[in-house]
Write a sequence for this structure.
C-alpha cells in the first residue's frame, strides 16, 4: 500500500529528504565543510568536535558513526572532507560509503594545498553531486519502510503526562503497521529500567538493558557527586521534575507499550530491523540526534515541555509541546500542541492521530518548523574516553 | 463559585499528585483526582509552580515517594498531606556518586 513517497536508495532504504551530505572526517575540517555547505544549495553538513587526539576505541566510534550517518537514506550523495592527518579512518569511510551505491567523493585539505583551494574544489564537487541527484523522483513507499526516532528534550512534568504519551501512541501504531521505531536516552532509563526490561523480547535483551543503564550510571557516579542538576537539568527541576527517577518514568512513556526487540550500539545503522528498538545514547541533544540520524531514521518525533528548539540537518524533527504555557510562548518553534491534553481540550489519541498525519506529511517532504528555522548546527558524536 | 484547580494522581500507589495550573499559592484548595474519577479536596501548603507536586498523604522521613506507581525518591523531611514536594524534601536514590564517595572514605 502506498502510504508515502520517498527517495529509493541502492541499498533498499527510502529517504524522506534528498541532500548531499558534506561530512567532516574530523573537527579540524569543519570550517571547510561549513564553507562548502554555505555555497551550495541542497547540501547539509555536520560540524562535530571529534576525530583526533582520542583513544583508539573512540576514534573507531567516530569513524563508524560518520559512516552510519552517511548511510542515512535522507542523503543521496556524500562529500567527505578530510584534513589529512586525522585520527579517524577516512579511507574506510570512503570505501564503506561507496559500497552503498551512492555517489561518494573525498577531498583532503592538506593534499589539495590549503583551506581556500579545498573550499573551491569541494564547492565544485558538491555542486556536481547536487545536480546529479536533484532530479531523482519520489517513489511510493510503504509504512513498514518508515524508521522513526523519538526523543524528549527540555522536559518537565507535562512531558510524561502529555507529549510523551502522544509519541507512545504513535510508536505503538507504527510498530503495529510493521515499521521501525528507535528510542534512546539511556540516562533517562535510570529508575525505570525494570519496566523496559519487562518488555524485552528475551532475557538477553533484558540483561542488555540493565547493563547499558548500569554503565551509564557508573560513568556518572565515577565523578563522585550527586548527578542531580546534570540530570535532571536545572530546567527539568524548575519544571517540577524532582529526580532522575521521576524524569525517567515520564521519559520512557514515549516508547509506547510494544515489545523491545533489542539494543543498538550508538554507532549502529539499522538494516531491516522492524519493531521497537533501543539505541544506547545519552540524553543531550547534539549527541543523541547524531546517533539517531546515524541509525537511519527518516525523521524524529521530539517532545518538550520547557521548549527545546534543537534539530538535525538531515533528519526532520517534529516538535511536540506538552506544556500549554510553553506552547503559547514558543509557538513558532513547535509543530504540535499537546498541551491541549492537559487543558482537557483534546485526548491523547486525538493528538496522537494529529502527529501521525503530520509524520506522513513530513515524510512526503513537508518542512518542519525546525527545518524552516535551520536550528540544527550544534551537533556532536558521543564518545566515552578523554580528549588527550 | 470558581471551579477548583485539579491535582492529578496517576496511580493508586502514588503519595503525590501533580498540579497543572498557574497561581497555586499557600492555602489554595485543589481537587485531587485519579483515573477512576475519585476526588478529594486538599489545601496546598506552600506556593506550587505549574506542574509541581504536592503530597496526598503524610510521608515520613526516609519513606519512599511514589509517582506513576513507582519510586521517584526518598523523603528527606517529614512531609504533611498537602505540602509542596520537590528537591527540598525529596532526594534521588540514583546516580549518587556523592554517597558512594562518602562510603569509600
Amino acid at each position: 500500500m502506498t502510504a508515502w513517497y520517498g527517495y529509493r536508495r541502492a541499498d533498499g532504504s527510502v529517504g524522506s529528504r534528498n541532500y548531499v551530505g558534506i561530512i567532516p572526517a574530523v573537527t579540524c575540517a569543519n570550517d571547510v565543510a561549513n564553507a562548502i555547505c554555505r555555497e551550495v544549495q541542497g547540501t547539509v553538513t555536520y560540524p562535530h568536535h571529534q576525530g583526533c587526539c582520542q583513544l583508539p576505541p573512540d576514534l573507531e566510534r567516530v569513524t563508524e558513526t560518520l559512516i552510519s550517518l552517511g548511510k542515512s537514506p535522507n542523503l543521496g550523495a556524500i562529500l567527505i572532507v578530510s584534513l589529512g592527518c586525522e585520527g579517524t579512518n577516512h579511507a574506510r569511510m570512503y570505501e564503506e560509503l561507496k559500497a552503498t551505491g551512492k555517489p561518494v567523493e573525498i577531498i583532503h585539505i592538506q593534499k589539495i594545498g590549503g583551506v581556500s583551494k579545498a573550499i573551491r574544489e569541494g564547492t565544485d564537487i558538491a555542486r556536481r553531486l547536487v545536480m546529479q541527484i536533484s532530479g531523482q523522483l519520489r517513489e511510493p513507499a510503504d509504512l513498514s519502510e518508515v524508521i522513526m526516532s523519538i526523543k524528549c528534550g527540555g522536559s518537565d512534568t507535562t512531558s510524561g503526562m502529555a507529549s510523551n504519551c502522544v509519541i507512545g501512541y504513535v510508536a505503538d501504531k507504527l510498530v503495529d503497521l510493521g515499521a521501525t521505531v528507535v528510542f534512546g536516552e539511556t540516562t533517562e532509563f535510570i529508575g525505570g529500567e525494570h519496566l523496559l526490561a519487562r518488555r524485552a523480547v528475551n532475557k538477553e535483551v533484558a540483561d542488555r538493558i540493565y547493563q547499558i543503564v548500569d554503565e551509564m550510571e557508573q560513568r556518572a557516579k565515577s565523578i563522585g557527586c550527586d548527578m542531580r542538576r546534570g540530570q535532571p537539568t536545572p530546567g527539568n527541576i524548575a519544571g517540577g521534575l524532582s529526580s532522575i527517577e521521576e524524569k525517567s518514568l515520564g521519559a520512557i512513556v514515549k516508547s509506547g507499550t510494544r515489545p523491545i526487540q533489542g539494543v543498538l550500539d550508538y554507532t549502529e545503522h539499522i538494516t531491516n530491523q522492524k519493531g521497537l528498538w533501543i539505541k544506547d545514547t545519552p540524553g543531550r541533544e547534539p549527541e543523541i540526534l547524531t546517533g539517531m540520524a546515524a541509525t537511519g531514521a527518516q525523521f524524529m518525533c521530539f517532545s518538550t515541555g520547557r521548549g527545546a528548539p534543537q534539530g538535525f540537518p538531515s533528519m526532520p524533527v517534529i516538535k511536540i509541546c506538552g506544556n500549554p504555557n510553553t506552547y503559547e510562548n514558543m509557538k513558532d518553534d513547535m509543530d504540535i500542541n499537546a498541551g491541549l491534553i492537559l487543558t482537557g481540550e483534546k485526548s491523547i489519541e486525538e493528538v496522537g492521530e494529529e502527529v501521525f498525519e503530520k509524520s506522513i506529511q513530513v515524510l512526503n517532504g513537508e518542512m518542519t518548523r525546525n527545518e524552516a528555522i535551520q536550528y540544527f548546527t550544534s551537533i556532536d558524536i558521543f564518545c566515552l574516553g578523554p580528549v588527550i | 463559585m470558581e471551579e477548583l484547580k485539579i491535582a492529578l494522581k496517576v496511580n493508586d500507589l502514588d503519595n503525590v499528585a501533580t498540579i497543572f495550573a498557574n497561581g497555586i499559592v499557600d492555602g489554595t484548595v485543589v481537587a485531587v483526582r485519579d483515573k477512576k474519577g475519585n476526588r478529594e479536596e486538599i489545601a496546598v501548603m506552600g506556593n506550587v509552580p505549574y506542574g509541581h507536586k504536592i503530597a496526598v498523604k503524610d510521608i515520613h522521613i526516609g519513606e519512599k515517594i511514589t509517582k506513576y506507581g513507582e519510586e521517584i525518591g526518598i523523603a528527606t523531611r517529614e512531609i504533611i498531606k498537602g505540602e509542596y514536594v520537590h528537591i527540598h524534601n525529596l532526594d534521588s536514590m540514583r546516580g549518587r556518586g556523592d554517597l558512594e564517595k562518602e562510603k569509600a572514605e
User: Anything to note?
Assistant: Chain A has two domains: 19-133, 141-373.
